[in-house]
Amino acid sequence: MSAIAKALPNLRPEEMEDPKEHLMHDPLPRGEMNRMVLESMHTTTWKYWTVVTILAFLVVTCLGYAWYYLIMQGLGVSGDNRPVYWGVFLVNFVYWIGISHSGTLTSAILRVLKIESRRPFTRVAELMTAFAIVNAGLSIFMHMGRVWLAYWLIPYPNERGIWPDFHSPLMWDFMAITTYLICSSLYLYLPLIPDLAMVRDRSKGWVKTFYKIFAIGFRGTEGEWKNLHLAMNIFAFAIIPVAFSVHTIVAWDFAMATRPGWSSSVLGPYFVAGALLSGVAAVPIVLFFVRSTMKNMKYFLRPEHFDTVGKMLLIISMGWAYFYFNDYIVPWYAGDKWEKILTLFIEAGPQAWLWYLMLFCNIVVPWSVLWRKKWRQTPWLMAIVGILINVGMYTERYIIVPEMSTINRMPFTWHIYIPRVEVILTIGTFALFLLLYFAASRILPLIPNWEVQEGQEGHILRKIGKAKIPTISQID
Amino acid sequence: MDKKISRRDFLKVAGVGAATTAVLTGCGPASRYVTRQPYTKMPEYTYNGLSTYYATTCRECSAGCGLIVRTMQGRALKAEGNQNNPVNLGKTCARGQTTLEGLYNPDRVTDPIQRDSRGSTIAKKMDWNSAIQVVADALSKNKPDEIAFLMGLAPDHLFDLVTDLTKAIGAAAPIRFGALGMFEARATLVQAASDMFGQEGLPFFDIGNADLVFSFGANFLETWLSPVAQTRGYSQLRRGNPNRRGYFVQFEPRISQTGAKADEWIPVKPGTEALVVLAIGRLVAEANNITLPTAFSNADVNAAAAAADVSVDTLKHLASLFASARRPLAIPGGAALGESNGLQTADAVLALNALVGNIGKDGGVFLSPVAPLTDAYHRPANLKEMSDFVDLLKSGKIKVLFVHGVNPVFELPKSLGLEDAMSKVLQIISFSSFPDETALQSDYVFPDHHGLESWGYQKVATGTSSSVLSGAQPVIVPFFNTKATADVLLAAAQKIGGTLASTLKFTDELAYIQSKLSTLISEPDGFFSAPEINTFTASFQQYGGWWKTTDNRVAPSAGDALNKTFNTSAAQFNGDGDYFFLPFVAPVMAEAGANKPHLQETADPTTTVMWNTWVEINPDTAKQLGIQDDDVVSITSSAGTVEASVYVYPAIRPDTIAMPFGQGHAAYGQFAQGRGANPADLLSNSTNEAGDLAFASMKVSVKKTGKKRQLSRLEGVLGVYGKFGQQ
Amino acid sequence: MPKELKSPTSSANTAQDVQGIWGMVVDQDLCTGCQACVAACSMENNVPFVGEVDAGYGRSMQWIRIERFWQGSYPNIKATPYQPVMCQNCHNAPCEPVCPVYASVHSLSEDLNLQVYNRCVGTRYCANNCPYEARVFNWRDYMDPRQRPELVTLANHFNPDVTVRRRGVMEKCTFCIQRIRHAEDTAASENRDIRDGEVVPACAQACPASAITFGRIDDPTTKVSQAADTSRGSHLLEELGTIPHVTYLAGGA
Predict the structure, then answer these.
(1) What is the second-level CATH architecture of the domain C16-249?
(2) Residue range B311-333, pLDDT digits in tens
(3) Average pLDDT score, chain B
C-alpha cells in the first residue's frame, strides 16, 4: 500500500490511466452483459452466411474431395519423394499442434498465475485449441499411406494378437495427442458450463433442450461453483504438463530420428517455445476478428488484452530465438559434416529465402513492434504481427520437415520437395478451422461471461488520498 | 501340326519327376509341340510352388549368352544366366534380365496382319494359312533377283535357313545388319585382323589375363561385342590374381561407363587416336630399346601430343607403363573406329600389341574361336554394303523385301534414305514381333515368336575361348498367335513345291535345326556327345547349346604387322559445326531395349538419366553457350537436326558433345514411342576405310531453343553437382 | 558351426530354430555400374516401374541404386567407384523401433530386417529413419492393372513367391528372402545345413563382374566371410553403429 502511495506523486492526474479503460473497472449490469453476449451469438448477417458458405465449399472440395482423391490415388499425388518422406502434412501437423498451445497457455497459465486481464479472452483461445487438434489429427491421417488401417495404432485386443509398438515415437505421439485432445476438450467445456446454463435460461424450444443437455443441470448453487472452481483449478494445473509434453513428443518424432538436423536433444523445449509463439500469436488475430466483426465485442475485448498478449509474445519470441540459435549453433559447433552441409543448405540453398522470411517474421517483427505499449494496444497492428509470426512459424516448420529431410547422409538421393496436393489440403484444413470457429461463435458464448463478472466483482477503485487506485480482492 | 503332344505327355515319356524343382529340363524331340491345357487339366509340374527351368539363349543381342528361364504354370518368371554356357557362365546383363518384358510386352504384334497402307497403324488380321500363301506367292511369283532378305544379327539358325532358301531359288544371299554391329565397327575389326595378321577373323582381346589394358574407345563393359564375357574378363583383370591388380587406361573424348572404371582417363581429341597409338608405340619401342619398327617410324610424339591435346609427359608416362607391363594389351573400339581413319586406328592398335609381342599369348590378342557349324566368322554388312543395298532398293529392281530381326528404318542413318528406297519396293514383309518402325513401313507383318518362345541356335562370335553354339528352345507356349518365321518359310517352300520344296524338306524348324546339329555329333572335344541326333538334341536343349571344352582361340602370327606404314594425319570430319559429335550406344538400353519399361527406368550408369535422350555438354562449353541442365538444344549436322535436353556432363571434352543411341522411336510400342531423339538422324553415310559407318565423324553446331524439358535422373542433382555436390 | 536341425515336420518351430546370419560383400573395384543387378532385382521381386516423371522426382522404386559421384573437374576428373546401395540389413536397424505397428521387424534367428507389407500403414517413419535411404515407398498403385492396363500382359512374369505391393506400402531389399526360405526348406527336407553358395540373391546371380558375394557371415569359412575380411572392407556410415550386414570393398588401387 505504501509502495503505491509513494509511486503516485510522480504522476499527474492527466498522465494516469483512466481505470475505465480496463474491463474489470468498467462494469455493466449483469443482465445487460448477458444480453450483449447473447446478442453477439444471435446476430448473423449476410456477410456471415456468405463466408460460411465459401468456407463450407472449401471444406467439401479442398478437404473432402482432395482427400478422397489422395486416398484413392495414393501419396503419389502429393509432393513427397525420396528423401523427403515427410512433407507438408507433417508441417501442418506440427503447426496445428502449435496453434493448439494458444488456449492452453493463455488460459491455463494465465489462470494459474491469476493474470486478471485473461478473463474475457480465454474461451476464444481455448476454442482454437480444440479445433487445432482436430486439424492436427486430420493432417496425420492425410499423411498415412494406408489411412484406412489407421485403427491399427489403437491398442485394442484383437484376433491377430498384435499390439502397436510403444517403442515408436509415433505411438507416443498418438497417445499424447489423444490425451491432449480429451484434456483440452474438457478444459474448454468446464468453464463453459455456467455460460451454457445462462444461455439455456434465456432460450426456448429445441435450442433450450440443446443447451439443457450441455449445461448438465447447472443452477449456480454454492456447491456447484465450488466444484467447478476446484475442477478448473485441477485442469489448469494438469493441462500445462500435458501441453508441454505433447509438443515435446511431437519434437521427439523428429529428435528420435537419425537424420542430421533432427536428432538434437534441444528439439523438445525448442518445439514447445515455437508452439507457444505461434499459438499465442494466433490469439490477437482471432481477438481482432472477433472484436471487429461480432456485435458488442468491443466492450469485452479491449486494447489492454492485446497489450497482455503482446507482452507475452515478446517474451516468447525471445525465448524461441534463444532455443532456435541453440539448436542452430550447437550442432554447428559440434562440427558434424552433415549438420554443416544442412546449415549451409538452409541458409544458402535454393530455398534460403524461407530462412530469411522466418527470421524476419519471428524475430524482427515482434522485437521491433512489441516494445511499444501504444503499438501493442493497436488491435489491427497486433493482428498483422500475429499473422506474420504465424507465417514465420509455418515457415520454420517447413524448414524443419521437408527442407531438413532433403539433406541426409546419402547425397546421391538429395531431391528437392515441391508440395502438390498438400497445398489444396492445407487450404482445406484452414477452411475447416475457420468454419468450426464460425459455427462455434454462433453456438457457444465466446466470452466467459461469468468469469468477467466474477472479476468485476473483485475489482474496486479504492480512494487513497485524492487518487482512485484499482485494487483486487481475492475471490477464490 | 497334326500330332500334338503336350508337355505332360512328354514328361511321362522323359520320365522327369515333377518333384524336382531345380531340374534343367531337356525337352526331347517328342516335346516339339506344346499345347496350353485348361486349368482343370493341370499337369503335375504346374503345382503351386514348383518351378521348371529351361535352358535357352538370350536374344537381346547377338552375343549368345545362355539363359535359364524359370517357369511356373506355363509362365516365364525369371531369366537367369546359364552357368554352363561358356559365354556368360551364369551371368547376364540388364537387357538379358528384362527379356521377359519383351516376351510379355503389351505392344507385341499378336497376329499376322496386313496393313491398309504403309505407315498406317490400321491393319487387318489374317490367318496364318493366308499369311503363308502370301509368302509363297512372294517367293514364287517374283524372279529370284527381285527378292531380297534383310536379317538381324540373331538368330543364326534362321539366317542359315534363309541362306539355304535363297541358294535354292537362286536369289541373292540375305543381307545381315544390326545397329550394335554398326557401332562396334565389326568390319573394321575383321579388316584390321586381316591387314595385320593376314588372317580373317574377329579379334579376341584376352582382358582377363592381361595386367595392363589400354582401351582406345572400346566400350567393352557396355554393349561392345560380348559385354558379359568382357566384364568377366575385367573382373579377372582387377581381382583375378591376388598378387596384382591389373591397370586400365581408357582413351576417349568422354568418360563412358567403361571409362568410369579406368584408372586413368585420357581425353584425346576425336580423330587423333591413331596418332596417339603410334606415338605411344614409338615411345614404347624406345623405352624397351627395340629398333624402331617401320610401323612407328613415322610417329612424331610432339606433333601427336599437340594434335591430341595430351601432354608429351602423359604420353611418356603411358608408354613407360605399357613398356614395363608384363602383359600389356591394347584394344581398339567404339568411336575410335567410327572415324574416317578408323581402320588405321585399329591397325595401329594391333601393331602396338605386336610391338610388345602379345599376339597369340595369354593376356594378348587372338582371333576369336570359330563357332560350330561354320567355317569362319562372317561379319554383318558394313555401311557401304548397306548403302549399296539401299541403292538396289532405290533402283526398283527389288520387288519383295523380307525383313527379320532388325529395324533398319530406326537404326540406319536417315541420310541413307532407306525409307525412300523402301517405297520403291512393291511388297515388304516384316517378321517382326514388335511394331517397330520397319514393321510400320511394311505391307505385312507376320510376327515371329519372341526369342523365349523360339527354337534356334546362335553361333557365338566372340567372348569366350571355346567354340560355342548356344541353343534356344521355347520356355513357354507362344503367348500370342505368332508363328516361327522358319516354319512360315518352310511351309511356304512346301506350298511352292519344286526344287525349293525338296531342298527344304523339313517338317518344321526343329527338324531343320536337327539337320544342322547332326554334323556336330561326331565332333571331338564336345561338352557332351551322343550316339544319335535325338539324344544329342535333348542334351543340346538341356544344357542350352553345345560347345567345345578346349581353347579354340586362334593364335595368329604377328606377321609383318610391324612393317606396315601408317600415315600420320588425323581423321577427317564432316560438316562445319564447332563441336565433334559423339554418338554412343546407350549402355543399358542398347539399340532395342526402349520398349521394356524396366530398362527405360534403369538409370544410365554415367549420367543416371532414365526414360529419355540427353545431350552431354562440358560445363565450360555450356557456360559459353549460356546453356543449363535440362535446356532443350537443337543439334545440327550436315545431315539433319535433332532436339534433346542437355545434361551438363563434367567428364567430356569441351569441344565434343555426346548423345546416346537407343531412343527416339517413332513406333515400337507405348514405352518407346515419341521418347527422346535419335542421333542416327544426324549422321551422314560417310564411312571409314573398311566401309563401316564413320559415326563419330560429324561436326555439329549446338543452338539453344529456349525450351526446357527436365531429364529424369536417379541421382539427386543437388547432392552430386553444384554448391552442395559431394564426392 | 554344427547345429541341431529339427525334422521338417515340426514346422512350427523351424523358423525360430534356423540359425545363420546372412550378409553380403560388394566389391566396388569390380562393380562396373552395368545395372544388371538393378534389373535382376526388379524382375525377381516384382518391383514396379514408376514412369518418367515420378522416376525423375526421386520416386524410382528399385531396391538397389548404383551411386557414383565425381572427383575433380575436367580434365582431371574421375568417377568415384560405383556403389550399389541396397538395404544393409542392419543389426541395429534404425528403421525398426520407429514403426508404430510392427511392420518393420527384426528376424532374431537370421538377423534380417523384415518388412511386413500387409501390416504397413504407410507412416514412412522407417524410410525417414533409414540412414542409407534404402527404403522405397509405393507412392501410387503402380501394380494395379486397372490403373495400368499394360500390366495385364506384363504381369505374367511376376514372381509368385513375392507379394505384389499396393499403394501406401513401404518396401525394401529383402536379401531375396524367398530364395533363403527356399534353400532352408530344401536343406531341412534333406536334413542338412545350407551349403555355402546355395542361396544366391538375384543381384549376385546376375552380376557379370561377380562383384556381389552372398552367404552366411556367422560362419568364418564361407566365401562371403572371407571376402569381407580384408583391409579393403568397410561398412556404410559405420559411425552410426547400425552394424550393417553389407560390406563394401573399396574400389580403386
Answers:
(1) 2-Layer Sandwich (3.30)
(2) 999 999 999 999 999 999 999 99
(3) 90
pLDDT at A119: 86
| Bridge partners of residue B199, in order along the sequence | none
Q: Is B545 left (phi over 0), alpha (psi -120 to 50) or beta?
A: left
Contacts of C147 by beta carbon, 8 Å cutoff, 6+ apart: C140, C141
Sign of CA dihedral A306, A309, A312, A313: negative
Count B/C contacts: CB-CB distance under 8 Å.
213
C-alpha R_g of chain A:
24
Min Cα–Cα distance to chain A from B726, Å: 7
Whether residue A83 is preceded by a cis peptide bond, meaning omega within 30 degrees of 0, is: yes
Average pLDDT of span C2-12: 39
Residue B440: closest CA among B452, B423, B456, B465: B423
Cβ-based contacts of C240 with chain A (< 8 Å)? 258
Q: Which of B498, B532, B547 is the last residue of a domain?
A: B547
State whether B239 and C29 contact (CB < 8 Å): yes
pLDDT of residue B57: 95
Q: Residues B281, B341: one domain?
A: yes
| B54 falls within a domain | yes
Question: B71: Cβ–Cβ under 8 A, 6 or more apart, which residues?
Answer: B51, B52, B53, B54, B77, B475, B476
Residues of C with CB below 8 A from A163's CB? 102
Q: What is the pLDDT of residues B195-229, one digit of tens each?
A: 899 888 999 999 999 999 999 999 999 999 999 99
Cα angle A55-A57-A63, degrees, rounded to a multiple of 5: 90
C120 with A164: Cβ contact below 8 A: no
- Among B326, B345, B367, residue at a domain's last position: B367
Q: How confident is the model over A160-192, as pLDDT tens digits?
A: 788 899 999 999 999 999 999 998 899 999 999
User: Which residues from chain B sit within 8 angstroms of residue A412, using beta carbons?
Assistant: 714-716, 719-720
Q: What is the pLDDT of residues A24-78, one digit of tens each?
A: 888 888 888 889 988 888 888 899 999 999 999 999 999 999 999 999 999 999 9
Mean pLDDT of C4-10: 38
Distances (CA, A) of A137 to A142, A274, A276, A347: 9, 19, 19, 31
pLDDT at C7 over 50: no
From chain B, pick out residues whose CB is under 8 angstroms from the CB of C42: 97, 598, 602
The answer to the question of residue B702 being in a domain is yes
Per-residue model confidence (pLDDT) at position B17: 36
Mutate to test the interface with A, among C54, C64, C96, C133 (most CBs of A within 10 A): C133
The parts of chain B modelled with pLDDT lower than 70 are: 1-49
Rounded Cα–Cα distance for residues C134 and A71 (Å): 25
0.95 exceeded by the pTM?
no
Q: How far is C101 from chain B (nearest CA, A)?
A: 30
Domains and CATH numbers, chain A: 2-154+163-472 (1.20.1630.10)
Identify all chain A residues contacting B716, using CB atoms and an 8 Å cutoff. Answer: 83, 411-415
Supply the ipTM of this predicted assembly: 0.90
* Side chain identity, residue B712: S
Name the interface residues of C facing A (CB cutoff 8 Å). 54, 57-59, 65, 67, 69, 85, 94, 97-102, 119-125, 127-129, 131-133, 136-141, 167-170, 237, 240
Residues 6+ apart with CB under 8 A from C9: none
Look at residue A134 and tell me whether its pLDDT is greater than 80.
Answer: yes
Angstrom distance (rounded) from CA A176 to CA A197: 32
What is the rounded distance in angstroms from the CA atom of residue A329 to the CA atom of residue B169? 87
Domain of B72 in residue numbering reads as 7-104+451-482+521-547
Sign of CA dihedral A27, A30, A33, A37: positive
Chains A–C, number of C-beta pairs less than 8 Å apart: 140
